[in-house]
């Protein structure tokens, strides 16, 4: 490291720490850990915490589905305007991309998803969803809030950021693949790395969990229409029964994973939709079934897709029925496997350890759930982790997509501080090592 570079780094550290610059500054390992700790203290200040809680509740009361997040987007832009943070809008319809820092490299992105789910909230509380049939049951209201919290912390330190933090407010995560749309709109051009947070009801408050390599599965959806010949339920010989055919199809689909897949290569095929018939004494003309399939490698995923189609069409024909199978379309693309970059895992462990204590940085097993963050992590090094919310003293926290899902708002300062710390320390480390070994985003595939 050259002297001038060393000097500017020293200045940056001291500015972050608000310490007087002494004649013999130290860049020892005891200094860097202070950044996350200071950011957590900032995020926990009552005025910042109350402001975040207010935003989160406002978004929770007015949930909006994928690519319809108009009011959420407006709220985000109003807060960014208030903070004096420049942004691009619209990106991928309702998305917003903010910029804090010099406007020059290195660029590091932190991301929040914005959309809600088409389901009715069953939690009775003051800030319950005001929109019937829509609910923030996955915590994306908290994700937006934590990213705004990070924006506030970072904007207060913008003059010390010798690079640019990119704030990615992404629409349409729940099945819509909004991340892909944002990528197509160029949000990650020149960006070196991206971090994403998801709240978790199964990890304790004040803890985080993740792993290097594949962390969430690739996922797809299928739907099949199985057609026979309807008629009187008491005269089956004059009909071709699609209910029986569909039942056999579903049983046969179970054999793909249990008999064809390597038991050590986790995969799922679930039929979660079965629609057909409406009377006790009528055999219907057709039945529609549908479901999801998951895998942790491209090969397994493609194999599942191919076998699902074959099994449905061929098994239906055994029962004299015809079947047509459709998969995701462009509006709802297949989600790739979410793969965490190994170098970013090391960075995450260090920063999260400094902020939460190493005992609260947990290693987890991969989950069969999926995330469209995977689209980002496919093109640049990405890192996705879970932020704990569980606190026995506050009752049971249900997992995502439950009508009883609740966010533990005590998690908000942790998320905001983690976002801000991961980004700033990434920039600082990048400056101290201008050409760090660049990990592939697909080390394990
Ligand atoms: Zn979800
Ligand atoms: Zn989610």
UniProtKB/TrEMBL annotation:
GO CC annotations, alphabetized: endoplasmic reticulum
GO biological process: one example: auxin metabolic process
Cofactor(s) needed by this chain: Mn(2+)
Superkingdom of origin: Eukaryota
Annotated positions binding Mn(2+): 138, 140, 174, 198, 401
Family matches, as Pfam families: M20_dimer, Peptidase_M20
Bound cofactor: record note: The Mn(2+) ion enhances activity.
Keyword field: Hydrolase, Manganese, Metal-binding, Signal
Domain Peptidase M20 dimerisation span(s) in chain numbering: 218-316
Molecular function, one GO term: IAA-Ala conjugate hydrolase activity
InterPro entries the UniProt entry points to: Amidohydrolase, Bact_exopeptidase_dim_dom, ILR1-like_Hyd, Peptidase_M20, Peptidase_M20_dimer
SUPFAM superfamilies in the record: Bacterial exopeptidase dimerisation domain, Zn-dependent exopeptidases
Signal peptide boundaries: 1-23
UniProt record similarity statement: Belongs to the peptidase M20 family.
NCBIfam families to which the protein is assigned, alphabetical: amidohydrolases (TIGR01891)
Protein name, entry field: Peptidase M20 dimerisation domain-containing protein
């Amino acid at each position: 490291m050259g002297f001038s570079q060393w000097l500017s780094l020293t200045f940056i550290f001291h500015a972050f720490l608000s310490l007087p610059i002494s004649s013999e500054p130290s860049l020892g390992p005891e200094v860097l850990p202070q950044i996350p700790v200071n950011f957590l203290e900032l995020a926990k200040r009552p005025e910042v915490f109350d402001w975040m809680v207010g935003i989160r509740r406002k978004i929770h009361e007015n949930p909006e589905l994928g690519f319809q997040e108009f009011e959420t987007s407006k709220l985000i832009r109003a807060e960014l305007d208030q903070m004096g943070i420049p942004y691009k809008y619209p990106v991928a319809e309702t998305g917003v991309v903010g910029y804090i820092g010099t406007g020059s490299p290195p660029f590091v992105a932190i991301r929040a998803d914005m959309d809600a789910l088409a389901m009715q909230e069953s939690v009775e509380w003051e800030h319950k969803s005001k929109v019937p049939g829509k609910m923030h049951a996955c915590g994306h209201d908290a994700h937006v809030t934590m990213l705004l919290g990070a924006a506030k912390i970072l904007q207060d330190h913008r003059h010390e950021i010798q690079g640019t933090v990119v704030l990615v407010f992404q629409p349409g995560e729940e099945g819509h693949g909004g991340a892909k749309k944002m990528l197509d709109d160029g949000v990650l051009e020149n960006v070196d790395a991206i971090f994403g947070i998801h709240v978790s009801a199964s990890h304790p408050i004040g803890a985080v969990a993740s792993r290097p390599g594949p962390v969430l599965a690739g996922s797809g959806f299928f739907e099949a229409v199985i057609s026979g010949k309807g008629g009187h339920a008491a005269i089956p010989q004059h009909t071709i029964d699609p209910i029986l055919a569909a039942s056999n199809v579903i049983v046969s689909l179970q054999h793909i994973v249990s008999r064809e897949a390597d038991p050590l290569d986790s995969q799922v095929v679930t039929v979660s939709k079965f629609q057909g018939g409406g009377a006790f004494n009528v055999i219907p003309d057709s039945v529609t079934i549908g479901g999801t399939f998951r895998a942790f490698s491209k090969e397994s995923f493609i194999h599942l897709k191919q076998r699902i189609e074959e099994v449905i069409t061929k098994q239906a024909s055994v029962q004299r029925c015809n079947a047509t199978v459709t998969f995701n379309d462009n509006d709802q693309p297949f989600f790739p496997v979410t793969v965490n970059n190994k170098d970013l895992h090391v960075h995450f462990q260090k920063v999260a350890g400094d902020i939460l204590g190493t005992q609260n940085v947990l290693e987890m097993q991969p989950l069969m759930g999926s995330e469209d963050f995977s689209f980002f992590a496919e093109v640049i090094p990405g890192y996705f982790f879970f932020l704990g919310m569980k606190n026995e003293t506050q009752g049971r926290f249900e997992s995502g997509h439950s009508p009883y899902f609740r966010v533990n708002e005590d998690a908000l300062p942790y998320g905001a501080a983690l976002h801000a710390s991961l980004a700033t320390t990434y920039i600082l480390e990048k400056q101290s090592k201008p050409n760090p070994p660049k990990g592939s985003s697909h080390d394990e595939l």
